[in-house]
Each structure stands twice: as structure tokens, then as C-alpha cells.
């Protein structure tokens, strides 16, 4: 029977000689330090609230305004045009002050404060207007319009002060609601290459009927919401796409991030876990103190919304019968650790690894509840975890900063089968054993026996770029700042007074059906086919020499390979962020366009090199335009999704919306952005490159393709599909030749000698 060790500040007993008082000075010292930390956080939050509340001005600017007003008054001039006199008379008539020089000064200071606040509001309004201008994204390189030439220095001027993480939040524009005729027109254009003439005629009739009748009614409600809400999409997207899904979130929603490809900084599991946890907590401190620089559009000063950072730590998705709920706590000074079927509060990793005590009955596979269907988990949570020792232990896990698994397996690109081991590494991070991850946590860190690491992230609270930013910082801080000794241990001295890890105690009855959730999760995990493919033949450096966007090049390549694999085209999902707007999340880039299909058809039919080159350039430009439109709020799918939600609230049916929302995404793709290359010294440490991460397939007969463009000469692909579909397979071995150009897609990697055409 495991014990829970609790610190007691003092004990006393009553004896015939009196009261024997025993104090635990260590416990009292911890209480004192905890209080100091708490007050420091409160002071820091108040200070940051003031700084970001007056941005783009500074708190000290009030002093300059006040001094300027007082100086002009000293020179017998009234800059307020009589307002100071009115304020003065109000103060005197209220009997709070007498008519004196001091009351005049107070009146001037009151006016200065009001003027200062008005200037702040004016500056913020100007910055919001400037950030609402997006035409710069659509201008060709080297052909900047006069408007953009004026706009650039103005944005730089108002962004010159060093901002905190959330300084721009109140200045970001709201996501606009597109005109319904524009959305319908763009939708029909996106599905044209996927439909036959009769099918397209039928869909056009449905779309026109919707636009001229029900659509306008739904649009009015949506515009009303956009006037009232900060973002007309994000809350519904979070609730209906993520939280109301009743199926397993493992594989279907959660995604993973990998360690370095070629390097493992240490093979000592406890040391890697210690540094990783330290790096993550350092990042959390930066988030809490708002010391992180706001993310920006690459190569510009344009800020991106930072709202997703607020729920990065101390967050858990709790199950419900109808819908889940995201719960976030402001502070927690611990992390939850799982090792060989036992749960702890983290204080000393090595002590946990050395603890040979067995798991309690039902404890080892308890995490399977978070991997299976949501309704059984909600029911069992209410029945068995709503009171007593089980509730206390579950609360500790859910309130933890994050979750850590000390995995007893070895993973990574190693041994005689590096390709197969990479695939197994991906599957392990995506689902593990289905019970050794806590899939409800905002993210779970996995440290393997050989020191390899990775993470599994829950999707509802944030999108992949936010987690990728965290993971980049963690990997770089672990390897280049914290570092290890020559024998692979953490640097620094051990603190001898650290308390023992606290073992969580459970009382799980035999009738708790953990096994049923495990069976559901195991069947799902066994069906996932993962393949990780580091592509080293060329990267964005060579692609840019062709004056082509690397993302457009890869997306068209995916379209080409899918066409060769399946003999046709499919609806393709590429994730684009909308964080140019406040509380923005994602929009869909429908990468399969008329232009990309025309190029592929021409290439496969043997058209001339010149014609293929021309069509490829058109397809690339079209893709870039689609991506920019999605980023700037002119996408298709989020607008149609919200119209569909409104129709459900009104209790009306739309055949058009119903059909649009039921269309399968057989090719779901996403690029993992590299946001902090300054943290990695690839010149002196070229092996420290990230593998990026991946996700499961969206459709049962489709593919999930994630890719990360690393440096100038490498692209890493993560491909997933399902074994149960006979038409899909994630990996086919192909011999490579430097004389050929390469196309990578969901299930196949193809080669063809057409590179000289581009």
C-alpha cells in the first residue's frame, strides 16, 4: 500500500507538564516562500496590466504630459482652452478644496491625466486601423504601392516600444464577416475540379438557392454576433469542433511533437526529464511575466494574437456527457508524473525512477479513460472520481502545470532499422500504450528510457504553432543553455533538503470499466499507420531560386502524388492561421484549385516543358493568393461553419450547408512553422534539427500530412493513414536518385525526371 507523504507545519501534544509544541521549520519556510512568490506574482500582474493597458504609450509618458501642461501654465498660457478652469471650479464648489495654487495644480494634473488617456485611446485606435490594413500581403515582391510605403513606417513608429506578450491584444482588429455572395462564389470555384458537370450544376443550384433565401437571414445573425463578440468564429469552433466531439481525442484530435532528429543530448532519462521540466517551467515563467516577445508575421513587425498562450499551462479538458469543458488554473507549483503505472507529484525524478513499489489496483491503466470515448469517461468520472481520495488525486493531475510520462521504452532513429524506428517513435508519441499518457492535459511530455523526448498536445485550447513555439524553446534551452555534464547528468548541485515525491493514492473499484475505454483506444491506435520521412535532397533554398513559394511547391507536390496514387483529385485541407485578428485561430486553405489541377493534368498528359512551367507558375501564385485570403479573413470554411451553427440554433435546415459540412477531407495537411531559428546554432551544431510533429488522418480513407521546412536543405514529412483502408498506406520504400525531382504525398513518395522544367 503506497503512502501519501504530507508536510505538517507544526504538531502539538498535551502532557501533564503542559503543551509540547513541535515546529517544522522547513515547512514554515516553505509556507513563507510560497507567500512571497504569490505576492510577487500579484505585483507583477498589476505592473504588467498597467504597462499593456497604456500601450503603445508608456506609463512614464504621463509625466511628460503633466510637465508639459504645467510648464505652459507657468508661461501664462492655457493649453486646455478653459477646461482646467472648469475642473478647478468643480473642485472648489465641491468643498473638498479651497481656492488656492494647490487646487489649480491638481486641476492641471487632472486635465493632464484626461489628455494622456485620450492620447492613448487615439494611438490605440490608429494602431488598430493600421493593423486592419492587409493589402500589403497581396503585393508582389518589389512592387510596393504608395499606400503600403506610407503604412510601413507608421506601423513601425507605433510599434517602436518594447511590447509585452499581450500588449497588442486590444489593438488587434476583429475578424470580419465576409459577404455571403463572395463566400458562395469562392466555394463553387474550389469544388469545380472535383465535380462532374452534372454534379457541379446541382451544387450551383443549391448554392444559389441558399444565397438568395436562407443565407441572407443567417448572415444577419452572424453580423450581429460579430458586432458583439470579440471573434465570431473561435468560441463556436472550440465548442462544436473540439469540445462537443464524443469520440476519442487520442489520434483523432491530439497531435505530437518530436525531439531532435540526429541528436539525443543525454541518454540519462532522469537528467533529460529534469532539464526538460526546467525549460518548460522557465517558459511558463516568461508567459506569466509576459516576457515573451509577441509572435509576428515572419519578416515583418505585424503582431499575431497571443490569446492562446493564456491556457498553455495548468489546463485540462474535463469530460462531460454532452460537451467537455476546458478548465484553467492560474497557479500550480507542481507537475504530474507517470512511471510504470504510478502517479506522482514531481519533485525528484530519480527518486521516482528508483521507487520499486507496484501500482495500486486499477492505477496502471487509469489513463486509458482519457483515451477512449468521452461519455463513458464522463460517467465514470462522476461515479468514481467525484469525492474522496480519487477526487483529490484527480484534482492534482488536472491542476498540474503539465503531465510527464517516464516511458520505459527506447525510441528514436537508431539501430539497424532507423526508418522503421522513426515510424514507431511517431506512433508512440501519438498514442503510446493508450494508458500511459493523460490525453486531457493541455500537453504531456514524454521522456523515454534512452533520453529521447517528445510531447503530445490536446488540440482544443490552442493550435500547433503555439505548442511548436513552446517546444522550440524547450529543446533549445535544454541543449544549449542548461546543458549536461560529460557523463550526461544535469549541471549543478543537488539540493539535499528537497522533499520526497508525493505518491498519489487511488481507490478504484473493480467495477470501474477502465478496460472498455482501453479496448476502444487500443483498436484506434492499432489502426493508425504512421511514417516519418526526412527529405534531404533539397529544401526551400533551391525552391526559392525558382522564385516559388516553398509552401506552394510542397502543396502542389502533394496534389500531384495524390493524383498518381488515386487517379483523381480530392478536397484538400491546409491549415492557415487567422491570428492577425484578435482571438483568431485557423482557416482552411483549399489547396486543390483549378490551377493546380490544370498543371497536374498537363504534366501527366505529356504537355510541353514550357506549358508545364507556365501552368505551374499559375498554380503557385493561385495557392499563395488563397493562403493570403485565408489569413486575412476572406476564407470559406469558417464562415460556412458559423452559418451552419446559426441555422441549427434557428432550427432551420439548409441542404447546401449540410452537404458542404459533410464533405470529407481525404488529404489533410499542415505546415509546422519554425519560429525561433535564432535559438538554434545550426552552423556550429548542424545535427540539432527538429523533426517537427504530426497528427492522425482526418478521414478513414484519407491521409494526414504534416511537414516542417528546416533550414535551406531539408523538409521533414509526417504521414498518417489507417490500416483498415485498403487504398491507403503511409510508407512505400523507393530508391532515390539525385537526377530526379521528388514528390511526397500521404502514402507514396514518387520520383520523376521533370525537375529541369522548373
From TrEMBL:
Give the EC class as a word. Answer: transferase
Cross-referenced SUPFAM superfamilies = CoA-dependent acyltransferases
Question: Which residues are in the Choline/carnitine acyltransferase domain?
Answer: 175-728
**Chain segments annotated as transmembrane:** 54-75, 105-127
Q: Does the keyword Ion transport feature in the UniProt annotation?
A: no
Q: What is its EC number?
A: 2.3.1.21
Q: Where is the Carnitine O-palmitoyltransferase N-terminal domain?
A: 1-47
Q: Which reaction does it catalyse?
A: (R)-carnitine + hexadecanoyl-CoA = O-hexadecanoyl-(R)-carnitine + CoA
Q: What is this protein called?
A: carnitine O-palmitoyltransferase
Organism, per UniProt? Maylandia zebra
Its lineage reads:
Eukaryota, Metazoa, Chordata, Craniata, Vertebrata
Amino acid at each position: 500500500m503506497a503512502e501519501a507523504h504530507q508536510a505538517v507545519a507544526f504538531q502539538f501534544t498535551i502532557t501533564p507538564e503542559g503543551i509540547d509544541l513541535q515546529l517544522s521549520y522547513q515547512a514554515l519556510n516553505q509556507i513563507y516562500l510560497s507567500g512571497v512568490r504569490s505576492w510577487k506574482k500579484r505585483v507583477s500582474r498589476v505592473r504588467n496590466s498597467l504597462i499593456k493597458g497604456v500601450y503603445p504609450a508608456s506609463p512614464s509618458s504621463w509625466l511628460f504630459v503633466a510637465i508639459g501642461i504645467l510648464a505652459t501654465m507657468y508661461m501664462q498660457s492655457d493649453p486646455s482652452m478653459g477646461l482646467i478652469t472648469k475642473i478647478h471650479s468643480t473642485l472648489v464648489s465641491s468643498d473638498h478644496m479651497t481656492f488656492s495654487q494647490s487646487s489649480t495644480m491638481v486641476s492641471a494634473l487632472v486635465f493632464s491625466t484626461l489628455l494622456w488617456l485620450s492620447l492613448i485611446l487615439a494611438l490605440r485606435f490608429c494602431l488598430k486601423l493600421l493593423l486592419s490594413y492587409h493589402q500589403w500581403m497581396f503585393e508582389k515582391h518589389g512592387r510596393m504601392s504608395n499606400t503600403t510605403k506610407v503604412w510601413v513606417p507608421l506601423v513601425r513608429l507605433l510599434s517602436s516600444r518594447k511590447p509585452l506578450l499581450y500588449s497588442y491584444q486590444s489593438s488587434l482588429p476583429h475578424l470580419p464577416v465576409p459577404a455571403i455572395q463572395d463566400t458562395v462564389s469562392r466555394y463553387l470555384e474550389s469544388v469545380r475540379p472535383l465535380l462532374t458537370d452534372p454534379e457541379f450544376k446541382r451544387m450551383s443550384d443549391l448554392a444559389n438557392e441558399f444565397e438568395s433565401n436562407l443565407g441572407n437571414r443567417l448572415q444577419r445573425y452572424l453580423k450581429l454576433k460579430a458586432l458583439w463578440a470579440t471573434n465570431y468564429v473561435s468560441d463556436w469552433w472550440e465548442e462544436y469542433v473540439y469540445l462537443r466531439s464524443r469520440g476519442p481525442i487520442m489520434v483523432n484530435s491530439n497531435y505530437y511533437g518530436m525531439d531532435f532528429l540526429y541528436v539525443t543530448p543525454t541518454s540519462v532519462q532522469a537528467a533529460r526529464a529534469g532539464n526538460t521540466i526546467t525549460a518548460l517551467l522557465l517558459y511558463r515563467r516568461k508567459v506569466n511575466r509576459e516576457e515573451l516577445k509577441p509572435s509576428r508575421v515572419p519578416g515583418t513587425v505585424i503582431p499575431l494574437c497571443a490569446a492562446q498562450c493564456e491556457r498553455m499551462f495548468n489546463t485540462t479538458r474535463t469530460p462531460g456527457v454532452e460537451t467537455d469543458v476546458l478548465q484553467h488554473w492560474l497557479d500550480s507549483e507542481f507537475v504530474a508524473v507517470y512511471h510504470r503505472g504510478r502517479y506522482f507529484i514531481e519533485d525528484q525524478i530519480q527518486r521516482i525512477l528508483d521507487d520499486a513499489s507496484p501500482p495500486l489496483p486499477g492505477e496502471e491503466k487509469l489513463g486509458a479513460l482519457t483515451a477512449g470515448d468521452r461519455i463513458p469517461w464522463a460517467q465514470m468520472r462522476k461515479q468514481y472520481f467525484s469525492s474522496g481520495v480519487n477526487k483529490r488525486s484527480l484534482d492534482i493531475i488536472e491542476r498540474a502545470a503539465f503531465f510527464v510520462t517516464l516511458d520505459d521504452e527506447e525510441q528514436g532513429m537508431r539501430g539497424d532499422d532507423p526508418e522503421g524506428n522513426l515510424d514507431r517513435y511517431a506512433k508512440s508519441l501519438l498514442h503510446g500504450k493508450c494508458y500511459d499518457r493523460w490525453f486531457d492535459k493541455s500537453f504531456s511530455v514524454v521522456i523515454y528510457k534512452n533520453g529521447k523526448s517528445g510531447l503530445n498536445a490536446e488540440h482544443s485550447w490552442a493550435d500547433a504553432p503555439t505548442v511548436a513555439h513552446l517546444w522550440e524553446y524547450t529543446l533549445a534551452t535544454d541543449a544549449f543553455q542548461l546543458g549536461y555534464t560529460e557523463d550526461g547528468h544535469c549541471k549543478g548541485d543537488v539540493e539535499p533538503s528537497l522533499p520526497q515525491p508525493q505518491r498519489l493514492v487511488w481507490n478504484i473499484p473493480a467495477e470501474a470499466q477502465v478496460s472498455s475505454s482501453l479496448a476502444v483506444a487500443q483498436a484506434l491506435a492499432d489502426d493508425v499507420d504512421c511514417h516519418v520521412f526526412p527529405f534531404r535532397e533539397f529544401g526551400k533554398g533551391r525552391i526559392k531560386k525558382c522564385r516559388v513559394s516553398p509552401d506552394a511547391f510542397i502543396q502542389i507536390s502533394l496534389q500531384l502524388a495524390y493524383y498518381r496514387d488515386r487517379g483523381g483529385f480530392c478536397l484538400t485541407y491546409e491549415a492557415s492561421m487567422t491570428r492577425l485578428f484578435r482571438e483568431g485561430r485557423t482557416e482552411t486553405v483549399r489547396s486543390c484549385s483549378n490551377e493546380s489541377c490544370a498543371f497536374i493534368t498537363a504534366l501527366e498528359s505529356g504537355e510541353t516543358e514550357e506549358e508545364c512551367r507556365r501552368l505551374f507558375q499559375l498554380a503557385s501564385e493561385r495557392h499563395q493568393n488563397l493562403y493570403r485570403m485565408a489569413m486575412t479573413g476572406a476564407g470559406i470554411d469558417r464562415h460556412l461553419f458559423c452559418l451552419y451553427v446559426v441555422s441549427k440554433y434557428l432550427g432551420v435546415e439548409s441542404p447546401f450547408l449540410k452537404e458542404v459540412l459533410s464533405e470529407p477531407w481525404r488529404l489533410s495537411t499542415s505546415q509546422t512553422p519554425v519560429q525561433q531559428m535564432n535559438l538554434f546554432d545550426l552552423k556550429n551544431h548542424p545535427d540539432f534539427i527538429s523533426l517537427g510533429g504530426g497528427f492522425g488522418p482526418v478521414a478513414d480513407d484519407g491521409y494526414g500530412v504534416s511537414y516542417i521546412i528546416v533550414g535551406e536543405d531539408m523538409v521533414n514529412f509526417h504521414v498518417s493513414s489507417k490500416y483498415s483502408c485498403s487504398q491507403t498506406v503511409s510508407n512505400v520504400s523507393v530508391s532515390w536518385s539525385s537526377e530526379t525531382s521528388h514528390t511526397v504525398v500521404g502514402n507514396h513518395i514518387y520520383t520523376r525526371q521533370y525537375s529541369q522544367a522548373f
